[in-house]
Amino acid sequence: MESTVETATVPSTIAFHHRVIAAAFLIASSVIGLFGNSLVIISVITTKKLRTITNILVVNLAVADFLSCVSFPFIAIGLLSQTGQYPLHESICASVAGVTHTCVLCSASTLVVIGFIRRYVITRSVRGHQGFHTPRKIVSVALAIWLFSAAYMILPPVLGVGRFGYSTYYGICTFIGVTKQSLYYVTCHGILFATILLLTLIFYGLILRHVMRHNRQFREKFAVEKDVSSTSSDANQSKVSSSSDSPTPMIKAINQKEVEITKNVFLVVCIFIVCFLASSVNFIIPGSSLSTLYGYMIMMINSAINPIVYGLKHPNFQEAFKRILCCRRAHLEYVSK
Q1: From CA 201, how far away is CA 304, in angstroms rounded?
Q2: Would you say the pTM of this structure is higher than 0.90?
């Protein structure tokens, strides 16, 4: 998204070789993102172990990232144009800009909601979170995220605050304008993403503090039990905690599967922060610059990274990816014969 006000008195543009580099990044991210996010969506649909309430939001995240990756080639076309105009019809550029920014905001908002849901589930007993953590309510939350993201992007142009179109300075389809209201809108957008970054840090910070506190309480309780027990041996903590005659520690209230999911999504959030931090700063502190273009590209690349993280860190997704890819390879070998 453009972080400055365009005027007719600015004839210069970003150097073409920088635009080629940005276009190459987008095309590579599009190929990787389309493939990876498709795997995530297909894996959840076809794998019973992955059809969980939590993964409803994971699929929502993958859908938003998939649609973002679909728009990347259209943005790359504008970057490679040397005529000062978008090669295709202007309405296509405006639509691409609107879809891209809506999906990016939806992806970022979904990560915040995942953080909130993870904290809600992790810090309560299994029975305690069922009132909120249900498929119908999570689907409603996902729909609300899409409505919010679309409204936030569509309403300002409808109300006359800027518009979506082709930026001749950056060579990308983005939000542009010629009024102070446009600058105000872009600044507000930067503040919104900065708020999203802050909330993700808060939610996952609270989760990690909760898990560390319960682990410490378990270790302290186990140490006391070991001291007073005359039959204690050198058996490790995991065997003692799993024995039927030992007291149920507080750590058992934490679902280990949920903790692992939280760790994986936390990694996604860390990458998300790296990808969005530069753009947030550029939004809040406007000014046409080369760093704005590269910050924009880094923000877009986030849509291609998330499925890679799931494939590398989540065992169930690893199994599903291997099964899908192996079946696909076997089918291709059969057709070739």
Answers
A1: 21
A2: no
